[in-house]
Amino acid sequence: MIRVLLADDEPLVRAGIRAVLAADPEFEVVAEAENGRVAVELAAAHRPDVVLLDIVMPVLDGLGAAAELARTLPDVGVLMLTTFSADEHIAAALAGGARGFLLKTGDPRDLFAGIRAVAEGAAFLSPKVAHRVIQQVSGDRLASAARARGLVAGLTAREKEVLALVGAGLPNAEIARRLHVVEGTVKVFVTSILRRLGVANRVQAAIVAHEAGLV
C-alpha cells in the first residue's frame, strides 16, 4: 500500500484525484490539504510515502512546500501535479527537492506510474515535461559548445594543439615532448591560451577544449 497526501486548493481537483487513486487498491489517500503550509504539517503527522503538490496554492505554494518537505522530511517523496509546465516551474520544483513533475492534463496512468516511482525513491517526469527538460539540457550543451568553438577560433593552429593536449590532462613536460619543443615554450603557449580564452586556469581551459571538440 502506497500512502498519499493530496495538496491542492481546489476541492473538486482533490476529489477527482482521490477518485482516480481509489480505482487502484495499491493507493491510499491518508490526508488532504488546501495549501502548502497545511500539507507540510499533515505530512509530519501522517508520514505518507508520497505528497502530491499543486504549485499555485495560498499561504505557502507548492514550490515552497516541496523545499520545506525535502529539508524536514527527506524520506517523504514529493511529486508535483500541476497545470503549469513553464521551464522555470520545472527547474524550481526539481531543484527544490521534488522527485517528479506531472501535468494534470496528462494520462491517469502517468499519475499511477509517477507515484510508484517516487515512493520507491526514483524520479519521474511526465512525457511532455521530460521532453521539455531534454530540450533545455540539449540547448544548454549546444550553447556551451558554440561558445567554446567561438573562443577556440581565435587561437593559432599551434595554440589549438597545445590546448587539445591540456584538455587531455597532459603536463607541460609531456606536451613539450610530444610537440618537440622545450618546456618553457609550452608555458608561454599556455599563458597565452589562458589569456585569449579569458579563463583563470588549466582546468577551465580543459573544459573549453572538451566543449569545442578538440579532445
From TrEMBL:
UniProt keywords (A-Z) are:
DNA-binding, Phosphoprotein, Transcription, Transcription regulation
**Which CDD domains does this chain map to?**
LuxR_C_like, REC_NarL-like
Provide the transmembrane region boundaries: none
Q: Name one Pfam family in it.
A: GerE
Specify the HTH luxR-type domain's residue ranges. Answer: 148-213
| Response regulatory domain segment(s) | 3-119
Task: Answer yes or no on keyword Glycosyltransferase.
Answer: no
Q: Does the keyword Phosphoprotein feature in the UniProt annotation?
A: yes
Q: What is this protein called?
A: DNA-binding NarL/FixJ family response regulator
